[in-house]
Amino acid sequence: MGRWEPDTRGRLLHAALELFADQGYDATTAAQIAERAGLTKTTLFRHFADKREVLFQGQPALVAVAIAGVESAPEGATALDLLRAGLLALCEAHVPEQQEIGRQIDRLIAASPELKERAIFKRSAIAAALETTLATRLGDRRLAGVLADLGVRAYYEGFSLWSDTRRDDKLADVVADELAAYESVLPQVTGR
Amino acid sequence: MGRWEPDTRGRLLHAALELFADQGYDATTAAQIAERAGLTKTTLFRHFADKREVLFQGQPALVAVAIAGVESAPEGATALDLLRAGLLALCEAHVPEQQEIGRQIDRLIAASPELKERAIFKRSAIAAALETTLATRLGDRRLAGVLADLGVRAYYEGFSLWSDTRRDDKLADVVADELAAYESVLPQVTGR
DNA sequence: GTCTATACAATGATAGAC
DNA sequence: GTCTATCATTGTATAGAC
């Protein structure tokens, strides 16, 4: 289907994961990643704005999925229903293989402040997108913001539990449990 | 009190703000900032890990203040009392001049993805610190996390309101109002 | 203990050829 | 879409001056 090997971005991700596992993130140059994928540094930076984005290339699609999930919720849905619809869509976008890749990436993030900063930026991008959609549906910016924070927290905490201690459960269930735990703790905030 | 001009970091911040206002963040080099402050690039990087940190140098102190605020709350304080104590301390650490500097920095952040990423990282650092302290006092990680998100949101939204439309009010009051608004909206999340 | 001089590796941008 | 080549800038490292 063309003069070059297909799936350039995927090949770059794969090459990066191997090299980072061997040498660490900092000790690996963009040129090395490109070379292992059979490309040059210039080409890598044509596909990704920076070295970090090679690892986070999956996130934008997740955001779109979450938004679509909220938007496809039925008309009479409650605030919490909308949030759950978004999270469910998000979770179902994960294929089982991503559990292992996710673990790998999480380890790299934990070891690199540079990656941690980008990871938090991505997390906040999901929250912001969720907030916007929820605000449209609910007509209440504050409620939307609070809900988005809650949902994103449930998603990240859930993902972490899922890949650490609940590997055989479905991600959607773990996240739903986490969200339910927040619900049951909220009355303590309001003052009972 | 020494052989050199005092307040090196403050001078660098001042120089950076002037140059960024003139030329924008991207078009200003670290060397230019240093030169305007009467220093060299080497010295700038001795004081700050990177160019962005010149702008965010105030944040670490704010984190310490917020934590101290929570820790100094009386023994019988409720979860919400603890959060309010932290936020109050945070707000009172702001001197009036910081309203204008804060506005300036916010404009720069809005115009630069690079700065936005760092700003979000700083926000999350405040949330994480708050969460840790609250968890210690409350003995409940989940509650602490949810509370920290809520508090940090109130602080940032409050700051934004304060510098945009409520300049003459006290920051602490604006933030307290914002937090109260979240409290009143929370029952809608629990499901009434 | 803070600053400077110099040299250096890596990022990321850019222009032009295939 | 990729490559070669070149480039400015970031940020580091070293060794020394006051």
TrEMBL record, chains A, B:
Any single Pfam family the record assigns to this protein: TetR_N
Annotation: DNA-binding region: 29-48
SUPFAM superfamilies according to UniProt: Homeodomain-like
Listed GO MF terms: DNA-binding transcription factor activity; transcription cis-regulatory region binding
Keyword Ribonucleoprotein: no
Transmembrane regions listed in the UniProt entry: none
Domain of life of the native organism: Bacteria
UniProt entry keywords in alphabetical sequence: DNA-binding, Transcription, Transcription regulation
HTH tetR-type domain boundaries: 6-66
Name by which UniProt lists this protein: TetR family transcriptional regulator
Organism, scientific name: Actinoplanes friuliensis DSM 7358
